[in-house]
Structure formats: structure tokens, C-alpha cells
Write a structure and sequence with these properties.
Elements: H1 2-31, H2 35-45, H3 54-73, H4 78-99, H5 104-126, H6 129-149, H7 155-161, H8 169-189, H9 192-214, H10 219-223
Helix pairs in contact: 1-8, 2-4, 3-4, 3-5, 3-6, 6-9, 8-9
Length: 224
């Protein structure tokens, strides 16, 4: 009875699920372009002051791991999107590298991300085939939420200086919107992973947006 009821609900909601899923996928691709605004400011100011390269380095690492996840799930839709995401994040990384005054911390971060990604890719090749898809999904969830919440590691500095200019507004606002769409999609298909991932992601983004509006960049800080 339960399975028949669920099948009936799924058939009724199929068009809505398709629409929300496609909108979420398109919006996700759109978020890959959010850092363009950040790179524009870097080029305009000819420096990377108050700009954190973590989203670019982390974006490359996550794209590679998502490609691996697509291979594990045998889902061809995941792979091309994340190849595209990797290429864009690599371009953003190059812009940051070209204008940064000190590239040592940048390459230190890149080295750590590369080693970590390599370890996880290697782990995926030796884990039990029956367990790897679930466990790799858990790992990616934790990493994704850590990447989204990374700017909050500077929370003390933001509050102390009353300056949230280091928070990338384009990426955070687009992330909140996309997370909301995927949350709706997760509710429609009743997928616990998608629901948990995006509930937390939206909350983290909203906290950061709250800080941006509470501690906006002042004119004097803009001139600095």
C-alpha cells in the first residue's frame, strides 16, 4: 500500500519535480559565474586585498571530487557540469595568482587541496563497492558545507573590525538561492542527503548575508 501510494504521488508530482530539478541545475551552472564579479574587482583594483582564494581552490577540488562521484553513481549528467566548473575555477585561480602580492599562501593552499583530493580519490578506488557510493556522498556533503561555511572562520575578525567586506556577496547570495531550489527538489523527491545538505547550506549563506548587511563596506574602506 505504501509503495503504491508513493508511486501515485511521484506520478502526480513528476512535472513539478522535473521543473524544479532543471531550474536548480541551470541555477547551479549560473553560480559558477558568480566569481566573475570578484575577479572584476581584483582586476580593477589590481590587488587581492580582503579576498579569500578558498572558494577558487576549494571549487577546483570539489569539481574533481564531484566528477569522481558522477563516475561512482554512473551519472553522466554530473560529469560535464563539474568539468565546466573546474575550468572556470581554474581561470579564477589564475586571476587571483596574477594579482596577489604573495603567492606562497596560495600555493600552500593549492598543495594541501591537491593532496587531500588525491587521498580521497585513492580511497574511492579501494573501498567496498557496496559502501563507497554512500560513504563518498557523506564525505562530499561535509566538504561542501565546510567550503560554504569557510568565510565564517573569520567571524571574530568581522565582528571586531565591523567589516564584512571579505565575504564574497555574489557567491553567497547565489549559493543561498541555489541551495533553496535544491532544498525544494530534495523535499519533492524525499531525499535525505539533498535535504540535509541544502538546509544547512541555506542557513550558512543566510548567516553570512546577515553579516554583510550588518557590517557593510564603508566609503573609507572602499578607498583603502
Amino acid at each position: 500500500m505504501y509503495s503504491i501510494y508513493r508511486l501515485h504521488i511521484n506520478i502526480e508530482n513528476m512535472s513539478l519535480v522535473d521543473i524544479v530539478g532543471k531550474c536548480a541545475a541551470i541555477a547551479t551552472i549560473g553560480t559558477f559565474f558568480a566569481p566573475v564579479l570578484i575577479c572584476r574587482d581584483i582586476i580593477k583594483n589590481k590587488n587581492t586585498k580582503n579576498i579569500d582564494p578558498t572558494p577558487f581552490v576549494g571549487g577546483m577540488a570539489m569539481s574533481i571530487l564531484m566528477i569522481k562521484n558522477g563516475l561512482l553513481m554512473n551519472d553522466p549528467n554530473i560529469i560535464p557540469v563539474n568539468i565546466f566548473g573546474f575550468i572556470l575555477n581554474f581561470i579564477y585561480f589564475l586571476v587571483f595568482y596574477f594579482y596577489t602580492a604573495d603567492s606562497k599562501p596560495l600555493f600552500s593552499m593549492l598543495t594541501k587541496a591537491t593532496l587531500f583530493t588525491g587521498v580521497l580519490w585513492g580511497y574511492s578506488t579501494i573501498e567496498d563497492e557496496k559502501l563507497i557510493e554512500y560513504r563518498f556522498g557523506v564525505i562530499l556533503t561535509v566538504l561542501m558545507l565546510t567550503l560554504i561555511g569557510a568565510p565564517l572562520f573569520s567571524l571574530n575578525d568581522i565582528i571586531k573590525n565591523k567589516d564584512a567586506s571579505m565575504l564574497p556577496f555574489p557567491m553567497i547570495s547565489s549559493g543561498a538561492f541555489v541551495g533553496f531550489l535544491w532544498l525544494i527538489y530534495g523535499l519533492l523527491i524525499d531525499n535525505i542527503f539533498i535535504k540535509v545538505q541544502n538546509i544547512v547550506a541555506v542557513i550558512l549563506c543566510l548567516i553570512q548575508l546577515g553579516l554583510i548587511f550588518k557590517y557593510p563596506k564603508t566609503e573609507s574602506k572602499k578607498r583603502d
